[in-house]
Structure to design on (378 residues):
């Protein structure tokens, strides 16, 4: 489940990027006053997929 | 007389050493909920339960409201009704109901909050000066004693007694059965001051431009010149937590929030709703904006605070 992320006093909710292109995101949140390159970086971080966690190691069967 | 039916109606009269008795009153906790056996299995669990319940929203049925420590207590119980016979026999006909007159410190704002409990039928748990909690049981669950509180105070001090900032609570207890015959105790282990009162902080609509709203956070009070703005204390911490919004019947339809930010100039929050969803709402639609729960606030070091939702009108 996506989580909120805070950048410079602004908390971005998952809904800020869900179903939105980068341009739509930048237009929607323009009132926060971030420069475009910052907004692009924020969009990129918000849409980055969480790294998959490695599968838990299987237990080694006991010797017979 | 060798023939007796007493065995079916009375108890043996032995006493264990260190049998508990109510000590001097120390604190009262208004508690309308119930505590399950697993939550009073030992004193530590009991205290943790009351502590957690004190941090619940006031809308929660298990909410614990905390009153300030008692500074003075007088027994104002109703006297027993007695009857006599003409040749000198005197007996109790009816037991009087317990009651107390209790003084505690409370300023003008707190007194107003206390007085919202006046003549309400509530349940309460006692803590005495020996560190023992007293309550009753309904079924297997622990519950408070039923009572009606009434607060007075807020008058000019006379300079003759300690009166300034002293509120007086008249506590009328409804049931001897609950209060005496079915009273149960739990010893306290730990810091009973962990059971803390919360304060209402109202979310307020300041202004908006389409889907971007400016939201204030203030403690309502008696200061005519304005409510107490909590922005400087907790604004940044609260903005970093999760708000929710809803519309429709019983506010059952969620409305997406895209961002919450601090506005250092206004000392308020900037809440942005998803513009597509917001635009789709008809003019005049009510939107309920809710902050994080008191428990979430407390976990994130915004302590002793309950954010009260605000209704916005599109």
């Amino acid at each position: 489940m996506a989580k909120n992320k805070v950048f410079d006093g602004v908390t971005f909710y998952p809904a800020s990027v869900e179903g939105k292109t980068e341009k739509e995101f930048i237009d929607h949140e323009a009132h926060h006053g971030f420069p475009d390159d910052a907004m692009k970086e924020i969009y990129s971080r918000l849409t980055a997929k969480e790294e998959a966690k490695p599968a838990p190691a299987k237990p080694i069967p006991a010797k017979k | 007389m060798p023939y007796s039916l007493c065995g079916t109606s009375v108890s043996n009269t032995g006493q264990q050493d260190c049998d508990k008795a109510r000590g001097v009153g120390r604190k009262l906790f208004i508690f309308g909920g119930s505590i399950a056996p697993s939550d009073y299995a030992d004193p530590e669990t009991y205290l943790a339960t009351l502590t957690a319940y004190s941090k619940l929203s006031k809308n929660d049925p298990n909410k614990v409201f905390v009153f300030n420590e008692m500074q003075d207590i007088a027994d104002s119980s109703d006297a027993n009704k007695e009857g006599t016979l003409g040749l000198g026999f005197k007996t109790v006909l009816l037991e009087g109901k317990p009651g107390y007159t209790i003084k505690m410190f409370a300023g003008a704002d707190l007194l107003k909050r206390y007085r919202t409990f006046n003549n309400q039928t509530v349940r309460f748990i006692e803590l005495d000066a020996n560190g023992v909690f007293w309550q009753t049981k309904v079924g297997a669950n622990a519950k408070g004693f039923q009572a009606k509180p009434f607060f007075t105070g807020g008058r000019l001090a006379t300079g003759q007694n300690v009166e300034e900032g002293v509120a007086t609570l008249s506590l009328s207890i409804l049931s001897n059965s609950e209060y005496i015959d079915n009273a149960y105790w739990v010893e306290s282990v730990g810091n009973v001051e962990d059971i803390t009162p919360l304060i209402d902080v109202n979310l307020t609509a300041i202004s908006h431009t389409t889907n971007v709203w400016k939201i204030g956070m203030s403690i309502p009070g008696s200061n005519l010149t304005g409510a107490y703005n909590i922005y400087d204390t907790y604004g940044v911490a609260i903005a970093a937590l999760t708000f929710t919004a809803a519309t429709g019947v019983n506010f059952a339809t969620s409305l997406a929030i895209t961002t919450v930010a601090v506005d250092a100039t206004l000392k308020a929050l900037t809440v942005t709703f998803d513009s597509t969803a917001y635009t789709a709402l008809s003019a005049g639609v009510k939107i309920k904006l809710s902050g994080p729960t008191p428990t979430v606030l407390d976990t994130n070091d915004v302590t002793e605070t309950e954010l009260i939702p605000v209704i916005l009108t599109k």
